[in-house]
Design brief:
Elements: E1 10-14, H1 33-36, H2 39-42, H3 45-50, H4 52-69, H5 74-84, E2 88-93, H6 99-103, E3 108-110, E4 113-120, E5 126-128, E6 147-151, H7 160-172, E7 175-179, H8 191-197, E8 201-205, E9 219-221, H9 225-239
Helix pairs in contact: 5-9, 7-8
The structure holds 2'-O-acetyl adenosine-5-diphosphoribose.
Length: about 240
């Protein structure tokens, strides 16, 4: 808490772990999506282009139902509270579930895009996912083109604006909170490295250590995002 209390430019980098308590499965580890599916077969852009109906059926439709039901948990709410307290500036998230915005954070960089919107692969028109009729797969745009999530598949580039802004935020923050990410997917995993090299204190919140632990991060607060954020917010509110 001693590092966060005086911070005014803190940035959070979040991953799937923060949304587990909202009912969204992570990618790696026990119960992770990549335990059930080969990401290269199901989440690679080449697979989608080869067989969009299959990718919609086994991945996208399920995710749509899960994300539709999900609500922010104490981890998301805690980060929103840190923003209200004037400590946290921005959230860089690898998640596509929109839960940080729903919790109240106002500057959220969606590093891997969003699931809230679908995009036509033909005319590029965007349509809100909640409006998509998925009774026939793959769903189509009014122009006849196939709809795809406005999220990053394996084999695709990070949206340039998201990458640029994240690098900018990482190099100017005073503290970086790294919450619920295994920190193995690049280039997201290099944001804490940029932060550390630029002089920020890097704090991890995760039940497990990651490749950053003890190398890039100053320390790891072990535990679930919701529990740890509740403790942090209570301590900071007492100090104010
Ligand atoms: P992962 O599934 O790789 O990692 C989830 C992390 O959350 C692990 O380090 C867990 O230890 C941790 N964790 C588990 N329960 C937690 C809890 N209650 N609170 C906090 N942390 C918890 O997810 P990401 O790191 O987000 O990319 O994965 C990065 C990218 O890999 C994803 O954005 C996705 C995936 O392939 C694309 O699809 C492009």
């Amino acid at each position: 808490m001693n590092d966060l209390a005086p911070a005014r430019q803190a940035v959070a980098l979040t991953g799937a772990g923060i949304s587990i308590d909202s009912g969204i499965p992570p990618f790696r580890g026990k119960g992770g999506l990549w335990e059930r599916f080969d990401p290269m077969e199901i989440a690679h852009i080449d697979s989608f282009m080869r067989n969009p109906a299959m990718v919609w059926k086994v991945l996208v439709k399920d995710l749509k139902d899960i994300i539709d039901r999900a609500r922010p948990n104490d981890g998301h709410k805690g980060l929103a509270r840190l923003e209200q307290l004037g400590i946290l500036k921005s959230v860089i998230t690898q998640n596509i579930d929109g839960l940080h915005q729903m919790a109240g954070n106002t500057d959220v960089i969606e590093f891997h895009g969003t699931f809230a919107w679908q995009r036509c692969i033909q005319c590029e028109r965007r349509i809100e996912t909640s409006w998509v009729d998925a009774s026939e797969l793959p769903p189509r745009c009014t122009c006849g083109g196939i709809l795809r999530p406005d999220a990053v598949f394996f084999g695709e580039m990070i949206p340039p604006a998201a990458l640029w802004r994240s690098q900018e935020m990482a190099s100017h923050c005073d503290v970086m909170l790294v919450v619920g990410t295994s920190a193995v997917v690049q280039p997201a995993a290099s944001m804490p490295i940029i932060a550390r090299q630029s002089g920020a204190v890097v704090i991890e919140i995760n039940p497990e250590p990651t490749p950053l632990t003890g190398v890039i991060s100053s320390y790891l607060i072990r535990g679930k995002a919701g529990d740890v954020m509740n403790r942090i917010v209570s301590a900071l509110e007492i100090k104010r």
